[in-house]
Amino acid sequence: MREQYAVIKILNEQEILINYGILDKAKRGDKLRIIEPGPDIIIDGHFYGKLDAIKEYIEVTTAYDQFSICKKIVRKQSYALSPLSMLKTTYSYENMNVDATQIDKDLKVPEITPIAIGDIVEKY
């Protein structure tokens, strides 16, 4: 199981504080995710984990002893030489050939709610 921390303060729409700091070995660039807890996945008595929804991926930008400032960082590639050299990748999803009688209609990923104080944060 991953170590879990929590959102302890929301500074603005770009910065949050989490209770993960230098004393926990936090450093700039650490990658974290804020989750919405989901149901346990137990099959034939074996626990596989939880089907959590991921609210956001964030990074530590400044670490203090007992907390860190975290932001969502978006990296974009751009080609400065020529607009013709810009490449765009698109993704789509296609249905798989599955046995429809085995689809679990009760198991759902939890609905994602806005980030709030107390939300669970995991290092990944």
The fold-level CATH name is Thrombin, subunit H
- The CATH class: Mainly Beta
Order of H and E elements: EEEEEEEE
The proportion of residues in beta strands is 35-45%
Count of distinct strands: 8
Helical content band: under 10%
Number of domains: 1
The best one-word shape is: flat
Report the total helices: 0
What does the radius of gyration come to? 19 Å
Mean pLDDT: 92
> Main sheet, how many strands, which sense, barrel?
6 strands, antiparallel, barrel
Q: Gap between N and C termini, in Å? A: 11 Å
Order of strands across the widest beta sheet?
Answer: 1-2-7-6-3-8
- The CATH superfamily is identified as FlgT, C-terminal domain
Main structural class: mainly beta
Q: Spans of 5+ residues with little confidence (pLDDT < 50)?
A: none
Tell me which CATH architecture applies here: Beta Barrel
Descriptors:
124 residues; mainly beta; Thrombin, subunit H; two-stranded antiparallel ribbon; 35% strand
Task: Write structural notes for this entry.
0% of the residues lie in helices and 35% in strands. The chain is mostly beta strands and 124 residues long. A hairpin with a 2-residue loop joins strand 4 (40-43) and strand 5 (46-50).
What is the element layout, followed by pairings?
Elements: E1 4-10, E2 16-18, E3 31-36, E4 40-43, E5 46-50, E6 53-63, E7 68-71, E8 120-123
Antiparallel strand pairs: 1-2, 1-8, 2-7, 3-6, 3-8, 4-5, 6-7
Summarize the structure.
The chain is mostly beta strands and 124 residues long. It has strands at 4-10, 16-18, 31-36, 40-43, 46-50, 53-63, 68-71, 120-123.
